[in-house]
Amino acid sequence: MDGKAASLKGRTRFQGWLVLAVLTAAILATFFLLAWRDLTTRYAMAARQGHDTAWFISRNVAEKFRQYDRQLLAIVAEIQADAATSLTGEPVWHQILLTIQTTPFVRSIGLYDASGSVLQHSDRKGGFPAISVVDRDYFRQLKDDPGQGLLITKPFKSRVYDETIIGVARAVVDPDGRFAGVALIAVAPEAFDLLGGLPNLPGGSAISIHRSDGINLFRAPLIPDQLGKDLSGTELFTKRLPESPVGVAYTPNRGSVVDGQDRLLAYRALEEWPLVVVVGIRRAEIAATWRHDWTRNAVFVGLALIGFSWLATIAQRQTTGRLEAELTLSRRELQHRAIVEEELRRWATTDSLTGMSNRRHFLENCEREMQRALRYGRSMPVLIFDVDLFKTINDRFGHAVGDEALKIIANVAAACLRETDLLGRLGGEEFGVLLPETDTTGAADLAERLRAAIAVAPMTANGETVALSISVGVAMLHPDDTSVDALFARADEALYRAKHAGRNRVVLA
User: Which of 34, 11, 27, 29 is nearest to 311 (CA)?
Assistant: First the structure.
């Protein structure tokens, strides 16, 4: 009897351990399956985020090159219209000056004759006869095939400024269709620096813009010796792009040939231009958050297995359910946090009445643009304007009409500005405008256009026409300015003089 009981007990114990082992194996298998599935999901989400970012950058880059091409076509048209003087004509020179003043991030514009001599240059009327570009790749390509349209050059070092630039060029032909020279716009690489405006990318991410033949035009963060590097031998250009213009690639196990980092590469080829935008997200960043979450989950599973070893079935169900619920909650929390953060960012940076930047956000952007302008020696004016006799409007028609007047003025001002200009409400009826890459003449012209547009803006209240006008103060950035305070103080002083000179006018500091 005792032997049978012991045998039964042994069989029961064995069966219990066997059930425990099976259930433990099932729990661990489920755990690793969920972990692997979550890692796969995170890679898919990173790829989707990379594609969205690449799409946004592609639109921005395509628009920039459309703008540069329009300017080149205008210059070439002016040359062909002025056949008597061709490349050296006065209208051509004025067209070059207009282009350099109105196009952001254009470093210089040059016109070269059929022998490669510099006949016109945006920094010197009459060009630099001693400098020749006959040995440049873009010059030889356009000379061999003048009808190829817009040519995007490799990054090269300018012989005028001794700095690396990217060129967009078109051939100039004479009335008989023969090659007569080249028109080239030199673009500063920072024209494509969008990384600072994409804060949601994971840490360590990188953005690259390549020509379709694999030549690297730009990278952020910048690695100077990578500009112009030929990456045509990488898998992206030898295999992925020929298969699909949009997709995902991975760097080799040894890491990227650019910076040695192992990355997920979301790429997009532009339809209009021979360019490829690549957004690289470090795989280590994706894996790091996954390891953190699943290390915590592993602790929970281990405690559950130890605490409920003889109740393996119940423990397995509870653990699996808890893990699934935790993953769902984590995703919901991330989604909710992203929504809340976006809403807080909008409220923290936007003026609730006019929808433009509020004072703090506007001044922060001005400080950043001022540092960039000082670093690269660029001109940068600011405008301060406020509404003339605004108190009279409030007293006569009420504050609701005054608020409507501010909205109308904000909309008119936004319509007068370029995409790169910054507009913000400083407080009350006072507004500020920052104009990157603009000289004194351009700032004064824009301020006058703004004043004139607001003066004719239609507004009525209680059946009466409400006359709107502004006074504008303009100030230019000085090399010795250390903060935006001094710059805005000069603009504010000019605004004060405009008020005392009779209002509805522009005064330069």
Answer: 27
- Domain boundaries, position 134: 65-190
- Asked which of 190, 219, 253 is the last residue of a domain, the reply is 190
Global model pTM greater than 0.70: no
- Kind of pairing, strands 117-121 and 128-132? antiparallel
With b meaning 16 or more CB within 10 Å and e meaning fewer, what string describes 271-309?
eebebbbbbbbbbebbeeebeebbeebeeebeebbeebe
* 209 belongs to a structural domain: no
Q: Dump pLDDT digits (tens) for 151-160.
A: 999 988 888 7
The tens digit of pLDDT for each residue in 393-437 reads 999 999 999 999 999 999 999 999 998 899 999 988 999 999 999
Mention every residue, 6+ apart, whose C-beta is less than 8 A from residue 78.
Answer: 89, 91, 92, 95
Q: What is the CATH number of the domain that holds 389?
A: 3.30.70.270
Q: Which two tokens stand for residue 490?
A: 């000069």
Residue 436 preceded by cis peptide, ω within 30: no
Q: How many domains does the chain have?
A: 2
Q: Tell me, what CATH number does 75's domain have?
A: 3.30.450.20
Give pLDDT tens digits for 308-364.
566 656 655 665 556 555 556 666 777 777 676 766 677 778 888 888 899 999 999
* d(C-alpha 229, C-alpha 208), whole Å: 12
Residue 254 lies in a domain: no
